[in-house]
Design goal:
single chain; 192 residues; 71% helix; 9 helices; mainly alpha; Tetracycline Repressor, domain 2
Length: 192
């Protein structure tokens, strides 16, 4: 008869996510994961597979979390202008207690060049964010929030690039005032 799991998979996956986010993939050992997740090594392998398979599951969980935060914040916005401002503020101010920066940016830099699965997942996430920005910009152009007539997709690429840079700067000692000034400059492209 199979053993009954004595832990909540999502809870331990969130613990692994935080550890990978804090330390990166390479610096995180199986022993680190077992200790942080509070499960036995055998349970880790039986439930999640090896370290790489666990990391891919962490990425999927992170994307769900991030998407949920984005959707909730955008839903509260009165218009596309506020929605894009929310995205910038979210990337600068963050939420709750979390490591600085972005797990997608971290993994793209650390693993993207040599791990095709991670590279694809990072690219998909970045594409989704650009599409979201494109849609918001297009809506703002149509309803008069934005005065620019520039191509919404090209503007989204530029704004997303700024967001990626902010996620990197968030891992440094750069002050939030500086990060908000950078965001304001990017938003000026939309004639805020």
């Amino acid at each position: 008869m199979p053993r009954v799991k004595e832990f909540d998979e999502d809870e331990v996956l969130l613990k692994a996510m935080r550890l990978f986010w804090e330390q990166g993939y390479e610096k995180t050992s199986i022993n680190d994961l077992v200790e942080r997740m509070g499960i036995h090594r055998r349970s880790l392998y039986d439930t999640f597979g090896d370290k790489h398979q666990l990391f891919l599951k962490v990425i999927e969980r992170y994307e769900k979390m991030l998407s949920g935060h984005f959707q909730a914040g955008i839903a509260r916005a009165d218009n596309p202008k506020q929605a894009i401002r929310f995205l910038f503020d979210y990337m600068i101010e963050g939420y709750e207690e979390k490591p600085s920066g972005c797990l997608f940016v971290n993994m793209a830099v650390e693993l993207g060049p040599w791990d095709s699965e991670v590279d694809v997942k990072a690219g998909e996430s970045f594409d989704k964010t650009e599409q979201l920005l494109t849609d918001l910009i297009r809506m703002g152009q149509e309803n008069g929030d934005f005065n620019t007539v520039r191509n919404a997709g090209e503007l989204a690429e530029n704004i997303h690039n700024t967001m990626l840079g902010l996620r990197v700067l968030a891992r440094t000692t750069a002050g939030k005032e500086k990060l908000h000034r950078i965001a304001d400059s990017a938003l000026a492209m939309l004639d805020f």
